[in-house]
Design a protein that fits this description.
The chain is α/β, with parallel strands linked by helices. Helix content is 50%, strand content 15%. It folds into two domains: 4-143, Response regulator (Rossmann fold); 160-310, no CATH class. The protein contains twelve helices and seven strands.
């Protein structure tokens, strides 16, 4: 699961020390890749909207100095963060935060008692750490929910409608079995990927494609069947990356394809196969996203139809 990108904001050197102490309590979240943290002194650093967009949440160490500099135009008014980003106030010193722009936000500690007023400061940091973990987990859950919704939308967009499906079944019933076996031997899904990225190619074999286009673009391509186990595909991609990581100007496009779904003549079975295989691809994509591979590996997904196989 992708780590939550969090920015910790403070306004004085003294509050930076509190930030350092707090990070000792949340260090396990960083090691488990729940959180990815950066710190900013808002007295010295102006955070632009472009910079702010990199983060999922901002934890603000509240003190009188912080409230002053947060809204100070000469150092960069950051009030847009309250309107546009998710903010969590962390009360460090007594202040009039409840009469400020932060008044409608739920602060930490959960008792709303500033850290400096706690008899045992470790208990204050434990309370804050628990709250930070809850915030991070909620953000991760929301991300997963959005991705699932996006995945469902993509499935609906790619899935053949029932009428289209049975039109293909009827049209190719006499030739499909033979064409399907032939297609498994010499697939043409490479063309799909390249056409999608602006190339006009039709009926070109893999060998010709490699010689004419891919070599000119310094791209290699690799095919992988979504029916393989996810761990097997993931491991193959990592092995491939390790073999090219130190080579300059060498890139791979990996096309993960679903040839299985087109083989069915029952619409419900086709839908089930399609959804299952695309779900595997989304799981794989999420697992690989954090690695990046320095831009040397790109992954695409292709599901075939009977018409693509037979025509």
């Amino acid at each position: 699961m992708e780590a939550v990108k969090a920015a910790f904001l403070y306004a004085t050197n003294e509050d930076q020390k509190y930030c350092t102490d707090l990070r000792l309590f949340i260090a396990p979240f960083e090691r488990k890749e729940i959180l990815e943290i950066e710190e900013f002194d808002i007295h010295l650093t102006n955070i632009s909207r472009q910079e702010a967009a990199r983060f999922d949440v901002f934890f603000c160490l509240i003190s009188p100095a912080f409230l002053y500099f947060f809204l100070e135009e000469t150092t960069g008014d950051l009030s847009y963060l309250i309107r546009e980003r998710q903010l969590v106030p962390i009360l460090i010193r007594p202040s009039l935060w409840h009469t400020s722009a932060f008044a409608d936000l739920e602060p930490l500690p959960s008792t709303k008692t500033p850290v400096t007023l706690w008899k045992n400061i470790n208990e204050a940091f434990l309370n804050i750490a628990d709250g930070i973990k809850i915030v991070a987990e909620n953000i991760q859950y929301e991300k997963i929910s959005r991705e699932q919704e996006q995945g469902n939308y993509e499935i609906e967009e790619l899935l053949l409608r029932e009428e289209e499906f049975f039109t293909e079944v009827e049209k190719y019933s006499d030739v499909f079995d033979e064409k399907y076996k032939e297609f498994q031997q010499n697939t043409y899904f490479w063309n799909y990927f390249l056409q999608r990225h602006g190339y006009e190619i039709s009926g070109m074999t893999k060998k010709t494609l490699e010689q004419t286009v891919l070599e000119a673009e310094n791209i290699r391509m690799r095919e992988m069947n979504i029916q393989q186990e996810i761990d097997e595909i993931s491991n193959d991609i990592h092995v491939l990356y390790e073999s090219i990581a130190k080579e300059e100007q060498r890139y791979y496009c990996i096309v993960i394809y679903d040839l299985e779904s087109a083989s069915y003549n029952n619409y419900n079975t086709y839908k089930s196969s399609f959804s299952r295989n695309y779900g595997k691809f989304m799981t794989l994509r999420e697992r690989l996203r954090k690695y990046g591979f320095n831009g040397k590996i790109k992954i695409a997904y292709k599901v075939f139809t009977k018409s693509e196989i037979c025509d």
